[in-house]
Amino acid sequence: MKKVELIGISKSYDRQKDVISNIDVRIEPGEFFVLVGPSGCGKSTMLRMIAGLEEITGGTLKIGEQTANRLPPSRRDLSMVFQNYALYPHLSVEDNITFGLDVKKVPKAERKKRAQDTAEMLGLTDYMKRKPRELSGGQRQRVALARAIVSEAPICLMDEPLSNLDAKLRGHMRSEIRRIQRQLGITMIYVTHDQVEAMTMGDRIMILHEGKIQQIGSPIEIYNHPANPFVATFIGSPPMNLAQAEADPGTSSVILPGGEPIRLPEGAFEGIGKGPVTVGIRPEFLMPAQGTSEHPVFRAEVTNVEVLGHETVFSFLAGTEEWTAKWNGQWQIQPGDRIPIALDEESICLFDAKSGTLMKKPAARQLSVPAEGAAT
Amino acid sequence: MTMSVPKKITFYTMLTVSAVILFFPIVYAFMISFMTGPEILQGKFFPESFHLDNYIRVFDRLPLLNYLLNSFIVSAGVMLGQLVVCSLAAYAFVFIPFRGSNFVFFLFISTMMIPWEATMIPNFFIIQNLNWLNTYQGLTLPFFALAFGTFLLRQHFKTIPKELHEASQVAGLGPFRFFLKVVLPVSKTSLVTLGAYGFLTTWNMYLWPLLVTTNNSVRTVQIGLKQLQSQEVATDWGVVMAGVIVVIIPTLLLLFLGQKQLQKGLTQGALK
């Protein structure tokens, strides 16, 4: 298995404005690496540069130990799965799977065997003689996957492979791709705009926004310690609640625009001066107020309620912002109600109001979860 | 589709009438080909008896089989040449990005607006100076580069998802193998259409073969038919029509076979 290393990679179409700038990352052998970001952030372009389908305008790309900037796609030792699968419509499933092997002059007997093995792994043996148009979306997806696996390339690139499937199938394929990747130990670079896919599949995630790296890290690390407000709102569903507030280290509190001061625990303001900050808190840390809560409680007007069965997600007005809270269970709340909400002040994070860097990390998640009615 | 009975009757009547009008000349030619001279002059529609005298005479009077063979070689040659040249040109326009490719393409297309007759004389001089009069290459070569064909194939190639191109690049296919193994099989429908078009147009061509042939060695059937007409003072129409029927048989055959292929190709549908 091979590593992929990007050193100062940038891409520009008109030689003036970089659509991707200064990407530095080392993808370890056998790692499942997810590139995630909103549409237009350059994640697909980056993948296509690694594949060799798009020219690299700056920096160095290393595959294994070799500099690969100028290598044609076929010499980069990788396989790729496309969003629309790119199956050859005139070939049967079997021929589609062996298509690349044929070109690489693999002997016929071995070709057959490898196709059989891969088809078995993906449950395609019954469809080998069919044409792609006679398959369902999920089956086509599997054929595309089989084509990538059968080449035995040490690196596999996937460009939003699940976005054409329905939700249920997507969940299934998610675990299947992960299983196969573990089983074969291939280095996987996976592009998606879906943060759930990123969270559940990746060993490490890279979050891209406007062609720049926002954060790289393991899913939980990113969830717990988002590097900036963009990451905080991009990862997590519903997103993290944000508000502009005033930091007052003297009283160890932040003052929300509504005038509500929240006292933060000791040491929270280390290295933070008086002035504007961005306050962030995840919806699950806004809890139902218990009789005598040790957390600050405030009353807010509910604007929207979604009861999902196992949990209730509702939004309310916190000062000028609309915040979202997530409570376990089925709560009888109506829009317009004014309800008491407790806020876990230790789980608050503070971002620099200007640069957006994380200044105060939230406390470790296991702490201070009340016994009843808490979020997951 | 469901249709009310009166509507159906109207439609079928109209279809029948137009079919009869369109097909009348061929049917009449078919009938005349069995008639003797006096019968034709009497203006009858049905011959008194169906005998093959006229057919025997047409093969007697002309080396018709020879002409048919020539026509077949020329038409097939032009068809293959057009397919090769047009598909390669269209491939370049679609899959090889180069500066000014759009400009070159529109230049290419604009030649469609120049009538073929306008370029006939220069073409003739070229063929003459190459000493290609009375040769198959002289008959076929000027028709290989067909702007219409390039346009038709380019439009089809453009519908091929670019991911297929990229997938084969990743798989390690060179441009020519991608052309042979993916582009051509996927565009079978358009290739068949263009092939049938090229074959039929060449089969029915009259002026060019007339110009570049001076003896019977490579002459095509259309000229043969004309010869039948002017060989005698009073044209024996029965014999001419027998010749016509023999000449259109391959055309009709091709049309029927091609149609089946075409329908098959069209109903296959594209894969998203």
From TrEMBL, chain A:
GO terms for cellular component: ATP-binding cassette (ABC) transporter complex, substrate-binding subunit-containing. Residues 4-235 form the ABC transporter domain. It comes from the Bacteria. One of its GO terms (molecular function) is ATP hydrolysis activity. The keyword Membrane applies. Keywords: ATP-binding, Cell membrane, Membrane, Nucleotide-binding, Translocase, Transport. This is Carbohydrate ABC transporter ATP-binding protein, CUT1 family. The lineage of its organism: Bacteria, Bacillati, Bacillota, Bacilli, Bacillales.
From TrEMBL, chain B:
The keyword Transmembrane helix applies. CDD domains: TM_PBP2. Keywords: Cell membrane, Membrane, Transmembrane, Transmembrane helix, Transport. InterPro entries: MetI-like (IPR000515), MetI-like_sf (IPR035906). One of its GO terms (biological process) is transmembrane transport. Belongs to the binding-protein-dependent transport system permease family. The keyword Cell membrane applies. It comes from the Bacteria. This is Carbohydrate ABC transporter membrane protein 2, CUT1 family. It comes from Edaphobacillus lindanitolerans. Residues 68-258 form the ABC transmembrane type-1 domain.
